Amino acid sequence: MAQRIFVPANKRYLSTALTVSEQKLVYSARTTQDVRPYEEMPGPKPIPLLGNKFRFLPGFRKYDFGDLIKVSKQFFDEFGPIVKFSGLQPKNDLVFVFDPKDIETIIRGEGPWPNRPSIKCLDYYRMVHRKDILKGVGGLIVDQGEDWLEGRRQANPIMMQIKIVQMYTSKIDEVAEDLVKMIPSWMDSKNEMPDDFRNKLYKWAFESIAMIALDTRLGCLEEKLDPDSEPQRMINAVHSLFETMHNLEMGGESFLWPFVPTPSWKKFIAAFDCISEVSQKYIVQAIERSSRRPVDQEPSALERLLQSDPNPNRAVILVHDMLSGGIDTTSVALANLMLHLSENQEKQEVLYQELKRIMPDPFSPITSEMVEEMKYLKACIKESMRMTPVVSGNMRKTEKEVILSNYRVPPNVEIMMSHAVISRFSKYFREPEKFIPERWIRGHEQEEKANPFVALPFGHGARKCLGMRFAQLEIQVTLAKMIRRFRWEFKYGPMQYKNAMLYTPINPLKFTVHVR
Q1: pTM over 0.70
Q2: Is residue 427 part of a domain?
């Protein structure tokens, strides 16, 4: 049987990895030959009584669990392409994988309802803390098995259908136009964006997703948005949500909040209550508007969801998830992309020339046909998400024994597929630290035949991000307008990042902007 030996630099650890076909053969035959037991998988060693929980305590933090990408790199450098992090009771063991063959084995072996590890604090909030309101419906983030599959069956034909997404192009264009036309007024004497430009991108993202999820404009991009206004409260709540979720799931409070109301748990409850309260108000308004919609007018995505799903609570919770998950993620993705283009002026110029050809009039509305032509723009987005994905990886939980990197992995083990680390490996991409959009353009001399399981910014298969097409449309339309009218620079690099639930720039986004 052919084997591949992996030797990390300056390490003694050796491991073997099987091809996908060999893994299937070994799995189906249930043979022990050449397959090592789970107990021998390398990883941080637990100690009696405390297991590996002591590594979260002050003074014992060898690994930086505040940054999932950093700790993933630490694990890979120390232990190799597969790492077991055990002794976390009552939590499941966590296995980090860094080989796309293993990722393919996991994803291709999934059944009709892939088991993604739950966000336990969110589970508790919906199924216990607010069960009187949500009636036992967890939504697509919380539900598993047949409940999840039924919810996805109702949502997929609406959220993933290109024709319905394209219906929103003009509306997304309107929101993008409102953002872009204000850019000159934000420039200071150095032509730089203000320190709060990040918050302005958040407002844009919230206005965009609200247009989709609630079928209404909220006025987030008003110049003097009151700090106590509903849009700003929602934006603040989403920020708090992601920060507290990371503390509750991966930080030191992860073992405490089920027993005592920790500070992060209190903030988490307040944030989700705010999101639920405000969004519920607008959902009711949208339902009332739908009753007055002319017969010959196409129903909105929200109306379609409410009409198609026999359980209206699922549609309501999906709207909550769209609002809470569509602000930070989309705005961070756009910010990361602008940073890459600002640091690679020659690539920005190529993109500008493409947009100039497609949009001779820089102030013309962007249509679906225009977006379809923007090949280089789409390649820029792919490359940015390879280099700085908004989330560091995808997760699954094993439901049966599976063989990964020649180790048996039992059921109920959580698998972390570390795409943010793998996509920077030179064995999978030429010059991985360079921003080269051309590697994604079919027929280009720099095109690369990338392994499809190395970079998966929106996930894969049945669990692929439900809002993927809408998020892409928001970024495509807004970036096209920003680059067509302005040239962007960033003089304060390199940017520093933090990685809690999202991979987010830390420093102010003080871009220097030149009107074209």
Answers
A1: yes
A2: no
